[in-house]
Amino acid sequence: MNIPILSIITFLPAAGSLLFIFINRKQKNLIRYTALFIGIINFILSLFLFFQFSGQTGDPQFVEKAEWMGYGIQYHIGIDGISLLLVLLTTFLMPIVILSSWNSIQEKVKEYHIFMLLLVTGILGVFVSLNLFLFYVFWEAMLIPMYFLIGIWGGKRKIYATLKFVIFTMFGSLLMLVAIFALYSIFYKTAGSYSFNLFDYYQLVLNPNIQIWLFLAFGLAFAIKVPMFPFHTWLPDAHVEAPTAGSVILAGVLLKMGTYGFLRFALPLFPDAAKKFIPYLAALSLIGIIYGALMALIQKDVKSLVAYSSVSHMGLIMLAVFALNLESLEGAVYQMLNHGLSTGALFLCVGILYERAHTRLIKDYGGVSRQMPVFAAFFLICMLSSVGLPGLNGFVGEVLCLFGIFQSSKLLAILGVSTIILGAAYLLWMYQRVMQGPLENKKIMTFKDLNKREIGFLVPIIILMFFMGIFPRPFLRKMDASVHKLLNQIHRSETYFVDKETAIIIPESASGIESDSQIKEKGIESENNE
Amino acid sequence: MIPTAYFLVLSAVLFVMGTVGFLVKKDLITQFMCVEVMLNAANLAFIAFAHSASSLNGQIIVFFIITVAAAEAAVGLAIILLVYKQRKTVKSEDISLMKG
Amino acid sequence: MSDIFWLIPLIPALSTLILAVFGDRLPKKYISFQACGAVFVSFLISLYSFIGLLNISPEQYPVVKNLFTWIHSGNFQANLSFQFDPLTAVMTLVVTAVGFLIHVYSIGYMAEDRSYSRFFTLMNLFTFSMLILVMASNIVLMFVGWEGVGFCSYMLIGFWFEKHSAANAGKKAFIVNRIGDAGFLIGIMFIIVSIGSTEFANINHAVAGGSLSPGLVTLIALLLFVGATGKSAQIPLYVWLPDAMEGPTPVSALIHAATMVTAGVYMVARLNVFYTMSEAAGFIVALIGAITAVYAATMALTQNDIKRVLAYSTISQIGYMFIGCGVGAFAAGIFHLYTHAFFKSLLFLAAGSVMHALSGELDMRKMGGLKKYMPYTYPTFLIGAIAIAGVPFLSGFFSKDAILTAAFANGQYVIWALGLSGAVLTAFYMFRLIFLTFHGKERIQPEAKKHLHESPSVMTVPLSILAFFSVVAGYAGLPVVLGKNVNWFQNFLSPLMHPGHEAHLNLTTEWLLIGVSIVVALGGIWIAYLFYLRNPQIPHRIAARFPFLYKLLVHKYYVDEAYDTVFVKPAIKGSEFVYQKFDLNVIDGAVNKTAAGSGWLGKTLSYLQTGLIKDYALVFLLGTIILLGLLIF
User: Which of A403, C295, C521, C523 is a good FRET partner for A93, with 20 to 30 A between their CA atoms?
Assistant: First the structure.
């Protein structure tokens, strides 16, 4: 592979935003079409990535490596099965959000799309980086466009919300930066060479005491991003104030960066510390599941209801992540995609309503179904996907997550199952109050059903929901080997550690990581099972 | 040959006069002149040491200081002039826009 | 036999898809044709597969058709695969046959509704979900159907969603079902973790082989039964079913007869090995069934809403099915399910016909004397009532008797007695319904009377067919007293049933039990006759005599209110409280306080900034002196 396809996908949106220099800001539709075009091209390119990706190995593929600043700071990107799916989710959502903001964004259209495209590059960069320095750059860079997206095109309390979002996230990520540099210096002391390379760090076995601090620093950054209880309060504010597209990206992809961070960095880099903290983190996740659901139950604002439902769903994903077995991790990754789709779609639906009524309060609605039957059906399907109805995507992820959790801890799984009851309760109640009941409000009687554009961006999501619910195997197979490898990395034993040193390096052959051939055999086995 | 200490004492006296003047006086022009005095006190000390150590380094630094002082005088006086034009005063107490 | 049976669920699925996509753009005639046709084709394939099944030996059961691997991750594997065996055959035949008749009936009943296509889409989807449930060869796929019927019931009960009560009832059905589903899901996980497979064949094999500890078997059996109580409306999760009357009547018929509520019974029969291996679980199932049978019947006594009476009678009859399953007579339980499907759908559809005639009137106090106006509906309704009451020679008699006999034979005398008292009540309230609706004085509202008419033939023909089956369906399983091998039904199903502790009674006892059943049924009818035709004052006097009891029954033991006060209200009030006090004040408060604190700190420190150049110079000087001092000393 000589074409640096991964770089192209990552930087195409950012490069595309340069095109806007040549477009007059008054040609709003041209701007929109250009952005849409870039989004679709990017999605097609990433589809190519998906089909070229081999599920047989857990090693990163499409790797590109180049010196950047020296001292171990390299441009080093690549994807494994986990990041592949998240990249795909991001590129899939991008054209959809651009379509969704076609009418709702009328001011500063050019800047809006520039920020949107930059945001996508930032997110993709986070998912593909294999160098911690590069990762941090993208991690922070992505905040800036999001800051403006909420701060400029947001609702009434947009400044408050956007500042809260940025400062909250910054607070966590600065500690992570410190931890990254600590790792860097430990690696230098141990190995005698400079490196920010993730895989070099994977071979580093750290003193468990040091691990604790580093894990906490990384963990805090990711926990805020997820967001885990009790760091969740930025989320409802940000969601409520953000424009629809911002909410979709925020719920759909941004939150996944937190879970991804745990999977890629916090857990495999510091396995011993992670194991110490897992009981507490699992408890927090469980609280998040139930707490988020109960809070969602009583929200008066549709958007903050969906935001709290995110807290609940992300709690389940985190609980699955901390269960640390094959089923739970695959379930978690799958559920990340599902949550991206279903919550993203719910925000799109809320956005469609908001465009018509300019209110987000549940009590201002009622009986919308009668007026907008097509929308009602779409909204219902998105809701059911979020509830985890079998046949739709949510079920596969949820059942795998719960099963994985169950294998690790029966009690947690049994408590976690409450999510399927509470999830149904708050969403159905919301649906009832918004969509059902008598049509009394004069304003709602003027609502028009979905137009072609709206159907156009909802239908791909709906189709994908069904597809992922009925044929989850193509996705699960892609990540199988990567999850295996990740688990081996996490389950590295503490016994390698020699006393009183800060760290040692273990050669890859001895690290207990299954060789590719073993993985391949497993892969073949699973092929044969079909 | 005058001992180096004499120059240093003179320099110290000049510097203290400049400092005290800067702190006590209210007029910006006077304060500005005090700064110049302090600078030149420093210059004197440099020259004295350079002379006693038979090194050119001190003298080079003095040239630097003189150049910087000239530039500073130009900019500083221009600022003062502008302040006067705007506020009709050059009293330093009256100019406290940077107050927190 | 050919494995064409995998098409049985997929044909309604395809029909659903077409209807969902094109919806109202299709002409009404076509919609009804396609929806009914799809179910009918499924019925034909079921029949064909059933005949195929008769031609193979029991060793070959079940025939499995694996389509593809659905989910596979580590130890978790679920295929999209269907199976066909006697139990599936019975269920698919019941679902498609009764479902088809209900579909046909709906053409007439829903003719004027503006959401015609939505209705048939959901009806097809409902049939599809139920077929998935009964045909799945593994428990995960069964769960798909299990949840699917829950969802369809939500949509159909809340079909007229403009009414708050309908929307509420739909939501309630879904959430209550989900509570059961949660238990069921936990049960599934225990099964996968301890057995390592999801296929029924492997599960049955492993449990029968004794590879699970008895405690675990009981635990799993009870967890699965929690799911069954939700779906099949047993204590304590029955509360959704009476409210489900908010949906259109054909939906009630579908839920009560062919689909949904029978799912729990089917599941227990499918996994019967758990309930035979664990006596405790079996006993609890039977006990819950028996209590529910009586409890629901008492609530039916005082209801004035014609559909509600039928709803409680369903809960009660499902209780009988669970008695059968609990005492190890799974074939009898399924037999009752099968006969019940006919007479209960008949009763509902006939009640719908009455409603249709009276412009939607449901209150029996506003009926009476309808016999002469409804020459088709009355006799069919009567047949249904006789069948459910357990009068000899009709289907309900044979199946109910089989269950009670089995309970007696197993020495479960308490359960037998409960079942018997439930039977008296059943006969009583069914004939109360008949007498109040069709006999006696006319109490019809003048407005309704103007439009009074018998239903069109598209509705009465299905009624007649169902009435026919309500009479003859029972002859598939005759009691043992009439000969050794006359219970064809039981013989057909027996290869699937784990051989439990089946006790046999001598013929005299059997005859005696049958005699008791007959006396009980006729006694119930006679009391109803006494109360509601001969001397209509008696009920009022009894109500006046025992006001507390009467009130308790009318208010359905205040269970809805109790659930509301104990679970729903505290959840909402508590969440509201936590949200206001904890989420906004403590958590978010901490965040905002931190932010405010930084702001305050900045502001306070900025007072040091006087803006006076001399102050800065002084500080500067002091700093220099301190530094110099530090350097020197």
Answer: A403
